[in-house]
Each structure stands twice: as C-alpha cells, then as structure tokens.
Specification:
Length: 101
C-alpha cells in the first residue's frame, strides 16, 4: 500500500483540528523526538509534507499541534552528534540521546 493510501487518524496538514487542552511536557518531547527520528529515517524530498503525514498517522501526535512540532524541529542544531528535545513546549534541544525512545 503506497504511503499516501494509509488511513489517517487526523487529516494531514497544519489546518487540521487543533488539540484541546495543555500538552504534557513528556508528550511534547516524545512527539518532537519521534518526528525527528522519522524524518531522519525517511529522508523525504518534501519534509513538511512528510511531517504532516507522520503527524496525521501517529496516534499520540494528534495531541500535540503540528505547528509546534515543526517549529521545534526547525530549531534543531545543525552540528554533529545526537540531539534530543527536552522540557516540553518551552524546552529546547539537548546534546545526547533521549532518555526514552
């Protein structure tokens, strides 16, 4: 089945319904780190579209706004080595591996 034919939990794109309520910091961290890992693994030609598709298909990600995940990914340092997001929506990139997958 081609990637675009898989069922969506949410419609892909930034205009999809925004989640209600505050996002727990650990969930935000998980969404950013998993999105980063997915994009690294996929190496898409259009990262914004790939991120929107990932977000739409990922059950826990629908609780985190796509625009917030995209903004966090945009801030990732370009330097060598491993980085992970920590600290929830107000957090940032930290050198090293994430404490959980």
């Amino acid at each position: 089945m081609p990637p675009d034919d898989r069922p969506f939990l949410n419609p892909p794109g930034a205009d999809a319904a925004a989640p209600a309520g505050e996002v727990p910091p650990a969930l935000f961290d998980l969404a950013v780190n998993r999105a980063d890992a997915a994009l690294r693994g996929l190496r898409p030609g259009d990262p914004a579209r790939a991120l929107a598709l990932w977000h739409a298909r990922t059950r826990f990600a629908r609780r985190v706004p796509l625009v917030a995940v995209a903004e966090a990914l945009r801030l990732k340092p370009e330097g060598p080595g491993e980085w992970h997001w920590a600290g929830g929506p107000g957090g940032g990139w930290v050198a090293g591996k994430a404490p959980f997958p």
